[in-house]
Design brief:
By secondary structure, the chain is α/β, with parallel strands linked by helices. The protein has 13 helices and 15 strands. It starts with 6 loop residues before the first helix and ends with a helix. It binds zinc ion.
Length: 412
Amino acid sequence: MTTPLDPRRTIAELKELRQLTADADGAQRIAFTPTWVKTREWLKSKLAALPVETHADAAGNLWSTLKGRSEKAVLLGGHMDSVPNGGWLDGCLNVLAAVEVLRRIDAQYDHVPPVTVRLVDWADEEGARFGKSLFGSSACSGNLDLDEARRLVDKEGIRLPDALANVGIAFEKVKDSHRELASAAAYLELHIEQGPVLLDLDLPLGVVLGTFGVERHAITFHGQAAHSGSTPMNRRKDAFLAAARMSPETYAITGRHGGVGTIGSCTTKPGIVTSVVEDCRITLDQRNLDAKALAASLAEARAASERFAREGGVEVAWERLWNIEPVLFDPRLLGFCEEAIVETCGKVHRLPSGPLHDAAEVARAGVPTVMMFVQSLHGISHNKIEDTKEEHLELCVAAFDKLAEKTIRALA
Ligand SMILES: [Zn+2]
């Protein structure tokens, strides 16, 4: 039997979407805006050719269901929203590949697959407007903090609940979205890598092991302001000196424990050219797939900061800004994903995801989950230059389809 899967159609549809929703600066599908609403209408018109039931849930996530012989559902997910001036693939590749896979399944099983297959387009994955990413998927997983979300405002001063009301979503009910996961048996998501790992290995596709756990802290060193001319070097309580030693230390820690570590900001007081620094506040962002390694990295950074403070005659205080535990994907689905990639292009690499994805929320809700990455050119996204070779786009649709089929057969 010839397969009706047509990856070239996915590429054509991605281009059609770009035509419809991008300008000279890139994609403009910001969630809950008129362009996003238009994007949804366009997506629904594509789905309308299939015998699916399509509706938006309480959080604005769009679900399109091809009913199977069993209620058990395989979910294929992505997000149509983009950051302002975004790329042509981030999020929508996942959804449009899923549309193509649905077409193949519908044709192959004569409209009734052995298990139910559902496409989900998550609402506001990017959080570009309100600064809260994974909105729709965290409402669905139950992890959304309603009190925090209720207070979010965009830069025009519009509150998130009002922006949602504008597109017909009742803020206080968004967590009702959780019922959509009732019969979910697996969640599969394809995504561009958004980093340079597969590019550097010259591999088109990778299996994603999970998403990094994150520890994000502010570290403030407190010394003493003193005249830069009259204070001898051995008499200084220089908060900046102690803080600066954290930079090479951060590299050394990731050298020992893996993952990544970033000092992303540094502010000094009084912050004038003629004074020794009294206060220096830096931020530390540590990420690791291994919870123990993440905890050890954090403990070592803390111990180092205390040592540098002591040696420099200054004080140090820590403040946790945010943290999340690592999310590991399902071992059986990881195996299917690896097989699908090897069957498609012969070679595979396993890698963690630095960025968070909707898949992490679904996994946290207890649904067995896996992601597949396709190589990103330039290792860049959230930018109009974001790109992936068309031959790799074709391969990823084919491999994602194989992953879906293996999952369906395992659950049937
Ligand atoms: Zn994305």
